[in-house]
């Protein structure tokens, strides 16, 4: 393993991310903050939603932000760089085995997802306060959940980025991201689906469910949530699945 | 430590459309939606291509578009997986020891694939970093390469707005950044103005003088002739002739090729043409065409015209090729290089 090359690849991605920092910031945080403002502040303030909804909503918003950031950070550059300009070629010719180039992309995406998760917490808290009841009771479990969520988003980005052409980016958002977010127990807990038993079972194939429930279980455990062991197990399963699929797709794209 | 290049019986069949710059000459099918019903397209690109380039040589692959030149470079640079056969850079098997091979090679692709998220100077510096070059050395080297390729003024600009020629120069600079032992250049002078082409030739010769191996592909005769110590003529995925440009040219019977067209073409006409002084070989090209290999050109035409009139086959078209590599290609394939 050639660490010098690996870190040079990471520093290139960090450099590009820094250059696009403002754009990335707006892209990542504007939508969740508006959502938090309307649902957490306006709807709760005007009495359409109970005050406790603030604390229920926040973990979901964090998992959306992280997922969106990780997928975006890995998939979009890959889609562009594998197109006809073949920009990625100079990195494919770096003296390192090919799968490490994909793994570097995943690590870079995970770091961005983690930053976005850790930034959206105080931002949303500022918008929502007072009356937000969240706290980290089990820091190690929270750390495990947040890392696994970051990995899920980045590995998902790898798999999507190597499977989708530039002209289908719009479809990726409307057919993959949007249903994933709405059926991802982000704006409501999984237990809220008790009245819809078929849907409640069906959404379990959606990895975002475990991300949201894991965040809820570690940040706002006062709400009913999936057992943490199930959350961790499912996230590890999806991380590995998406990583394996992503690496295979990457190799197919990279070598003709 | 100079490093050579070797391939043995390389075969490559693309089962999907080959990437741009690799399959230029193939008829490609669009990726059909009904892919399940239709069998996958099988596009042969290499058909038992064997090469042996000793260390420290400038070697050229000459052939028309779609002959398999870029695919050969792709296989040798880890970017294309051969269907069968083997390739080595020095002692390293290209497919099995990719990281070691990539350390030894520099690649200039047919189409620039520069990192659009970076400036010209950053492209060079990060390329150096990927190869583990320390920051002081890589920055110095980046500056000197920018200078050499006359890009210093644009060094801090994003490359998106660069002209084709500038991108090509930067691609070459990038390939030289880590001082590779083997340099691959796929159609290096395509899109360069004549001045830059001469600069490029000088740089390649200078690089070679430092004991490096250079493999370039071209369909430019002049370039192959001026630059390469040895050449392989490639067509339909295999090598049809290898040698120095001089030897290859000497192998063409006569040297001149007269491509003739008659009103009609008979066996009698062919055998009579063969008897003219200076004619080495006569080949029927199609129903009305005849290729005459001879050691003189224009001075044969009056005799041919008279002879043709004598057998009732009027001469309707004449094209004379002077001795050159183009005729070699014609001789081996019956086709022009630019067909």
Would you mind describing this structure in some detail?
The complex is a heterodimer of chains A (256) and B (339). Chain A is mostly helical. Chain A has one domain (3-254). Chain A contains ten helices and no strands. In chain A, helix 3 (53-82) runs parallel beside helix 6 (139-161). The mean pLDDT of chain A is 90. By secondary structure, chain B is α/β, with parallel strands linked by helices. Chain B folds into two domains: 5-27 and 41-114 and 162-248, P-loop containing nucleotide triphosphate hydrolases (Rossmann fold), CATH 3.40.50; 253-323, 2-Layer Sandwich (Alpha-Beta Plaits), CATH 3.30.70. Chain B is 32% helix and 26% strand. Chain B has eleven helices and 14 strands. Chain B has helices spanning 69-76, 98-104, 120-130, 135-148, 164-176, 194-209, 221-227, 245-250, 267-274, 301-310, 325-333; strands at 5-14, 43-53, 58-62, 84-89, 92-93, 105-108, 182-186, 213-218, 230-235, 238-243, 256-262, 279-284, 289-294, 315-321. In chain B, the strands form three sheets. Chain B has a six-stranded mixed β-sheet with strand order 6-7-8-3-9-10, with helices on both faces. In chain B, strands 2-1-4-5 form a four-stranded antiparallel β-sheet, with helices on one face. A four-stranded antiparallel β-sheet of chain B has the order 12-13-11-14, with helices on one face. In chain B, a hairpin with a 4-residue loop joins strand 12 and strand 13. In chain B, helix 3 crosses helix 4 (135-148) and helix 4 packs across helix 5. The model of chain B is unreliable at 23-35 (pLDDT under 50). The chains are: A mainly alpha (256), B alpha/beta (339). At the A-B interface, helix 1 and helix 4 of A face helix 2 and helix 3 of B.
